UniProtKB/TrEMBL annotation:
This is DUF3612 domain-containing protein. It comes from Ramlibacter algicola. It comes from the Bacteria. Pfam families: DUF3612, HTH_3. Residues 15-76 form the HTH cro/C1-type domain. InterPro entries: Cro/C1-type_HTH, DUF3612, Lambda_DNA-bd_dom_sf.
Amino acid sequence: MATHLRNSHLLGSKLRSLRKTHGLTLEELSARCIQIDAARAPSVSYLSMIESGKRVPSGDLVGLLASVFQRDPHWFLDASEPPPAPPSQERPTATATVPFEPAFLFSKELLQAAIPELLAQTGTTGRQFAHLLIRSHQEMSRNDFPDLERAAEQVGERRFPLGVDDLQKLCKHHGLQLKWYDQPPILAMDGEHELRSVLRSFYDSPSTVYVNRELQKHPARLKFDLASHLAHKVLHGGDGLKSAHATGGQLGDSPKGPAGLSPQDVLHAWRDFECSFFAGALLAPKVPFRRFLTRESHRVEAGEKIELAPAMMMRRMTKVSPYPHWHFFDAYPPGFLRAVYRGNGIPLPWGNMAQVSDPCPHWAVFRMLHRTRGNDRGSQISVLREGDRFLLYCCHSRRTEDMAGNPHVLSVGVDLAPALQSHTGDAQAIVDSIAYACLTHGGEARIPEDAAAAIRGAAGVLNIAWIPDALERPARIICPRSSHCPRQEPCDGRMSGAREITDLRQEIIRKVKKAK
């Protein structure tokens, strides 16, 4: 290695290109090195000098940097050109868009008349529709709301972690008075279904927060509720236009309201989102929480050490990670996705407005939702067909109960293809090899060793521990729609004999061309 260090003229540019490709700051790269070998880890300033060519690292340090990026140490020292860093605007849009043509049918006046009728005819509430709009805005903006982040950091001064006592002191400092009450769970209607719901807390203008005493048994939930109500006081002066925190109800507000769109729906929904995002930024400020995830290799269970609920861990993970291609689901039986975030644009035919009538049983979130026994958490690598190509995802799911005792499943995941492309340069070949293995073994199969090695390397760079865990289990083919399932055998007998007209047209065209 010492001899090869003479060929280090490209080392700095290669290191800078790799670091930027994977979205790491110099501070985060230094932290990753400390995680592997604290004694040899370079400082931020020394890394900067390496990248600028002012310092030549030792052979041991090159080996340490190679471990972070899962590369052969000699790659840093050969004469090959550094990989180009992806342009900042290269990320795909999470939410699909359609052109509003012909334009005269999409005038403001026609939309104002058509949308309420559409919602009434489909049984969709205004609150559901508003949440869908907010979700699309959240996905297209990549979950980036710097004003809310700054406001939360000013209030909490980036202290991490915050305990229940800290939250109560912050509430008192901002003029909030807490009043405790006792209220057991009740039965509430959620659409056509009855479910247990409990009123956890609510805001009473101008400065009173009523809190269910039962929350004292759940510090992580109590912290979130207090942080959310504090957000309302800070952001909106405590005017009271904020939903109550009710566990078990539709979209967190129980019971479900009437279909249609009322003037207050969007305002309330946006206020709720702002307060929820503020609460996450207060309890898990970006920089210290990112360091925490680095130390814990993105393990969701690490939240137990700092009294952060799994949902908070997963949601903030999608925001603070340097890797942008994440998704998050919160599913309730029989097939509701109450919360959805798709920063990676994962194709879904359903969302938070309707129940999945026939969910693919091989999606990890639905497998765990309907499983009554076995592990309450696990990781899965999934292959999903979209048109003529296959996509590759890995998720970590966890079955839990809300405060009212209703079971639900939380799931956080990443799109593996961009990470594989950065690591190997040939992601699609790897994805196709896994898809072929699954297709030839009835829909699920052990991942071929070459592909598994590539995924381990990418996971090492991402520093996500549950991706290698998923390699211990077979990969599964999942479907965006049961009618498009690529498996040779129907899934649990759920597929009907119905066929898509588009598929039939293509079949006829192929037959006619073949006859010629």
